Amino acid sequence: MLEVRGVDARYGDAQALWGVAIDVADGEMVCIVGPNGAGKTTLVHTIAGLHPCAAGTITIGGVDIARLPGHRVGDHGVATVPEGRRVFGHMTVRDNLLLGAYRRRARSRYRQTEAEVYQLFPRLQERARQPAGSLSGGEQQMLAIGRALMARPRLLLLDEPSLGLAPVILDEVFHAIAVIAATGVGVLLVEQDVERAMSACSRGYLLLEGRIAAAGTTAQLREDADVRQRVLGG
Ligand code: ATP
C-alpha cells in the first residue's frame, strides 16, 4: 500500500536520505531501526509531507503523495503519531481526539471511531473530560495514537512511541498497535527500543547514514551483521 522509491531528502546542502526504498502492506507492521542521526525521523517526516522530498516517489494505493504538503497527505489516509506525542495539554482528552477527525473522510463517522478508540484505550474514556496535560506520559501516548486513529487512516506512522515510557505501559501501547494493524491499517514504526520493535513487527529495515543498509523479516534482521553491530550492541 505504501511504496517509497528512490527517496532523497536534504537539510540545505546536507543530504539526510539517499535513494530510500521501503514498502508497507495493509495490516502489516514494519519497523525502521538505526543509530542516532541515521535519518529515521527525516524519513517519517518526508512520508508525512512535513519535510520536502528532494527526489523519488512515495505512493499510497498507487497515488504519488511525495510532493503534497502535510495537510494534503492526510487526505490519502496517512496519520502520524509524532515523537514527543504533542497533545494539547489545556484541551480535554475528548477535544484532542475530535481534532483528529476534522477531515471529510473521518468527520461523518467520528462517533463510531471515537467508540472504537475508547474500546482500544478504556482509560481515555474514563478521562475524556480531563485536560490532556493531566494524563501520565503513557496515557498521552495512547491519546496521540487515538487522535491519529480518529482520521481513519490506512497508514499509521509512529515516531519513537516508547520514548520515556515505563515498561508496563509500553506493553499496553504495543498491544494496542498490534490490534490496530490487525484491523488492516499499515503501521510504520520508528523505534529506539530495537528489541521491542523487532518483537512487534514482522519486517524491518536498517537505516545507516541515510541509506537502507539491510531489509528483511525481523528474524533475518536479527542475524544481520550490521544490525547486530550497529543497533543491537554487538
Ligand atoms: P534520532 O534517533 O537521533 O532522532 P534519526 O535517525 O531520527 O536520529 P534524523 O533526526 O532524521 O535521524 O537526522 C538525520 C540527519 O539529518 C542527521 O545527520 C541530523 O544531524 C540531520 N538533521 C536532522 N534535522 C536537521 C535540521 N533541522 N537541520 C539540519 N540537519 C538536520
Automatic annotation (TrEMBL):
Residue ranges of domain ABC transporter in the record: 2-234
Pfam families (UniProt xref): ABC_tran
Gene3D superfamilies in the cross-refs: P-loop containing nucleotide triphosphate hydrolases (3.40.50.300)
Keywords: Amino-acid transport, ATP-binding, Nucleotide-binding, Transport
Statement: the UniProt record of this protein carries the keyword Transport: yes
Gene Ontology biological process terms, A to Z: L-amino acid transport
GO molecular function: ATP binding; ATP hydrolysis activity; branched-chain amino acid transmembrane transporter activity
Family statement: Belongs to the ABC transporter superfamily.
Protein name in the entry: ABC transporter ATP-binding protein
Naturally occurring in which organism (per UniProt): Rhizocola hellebori
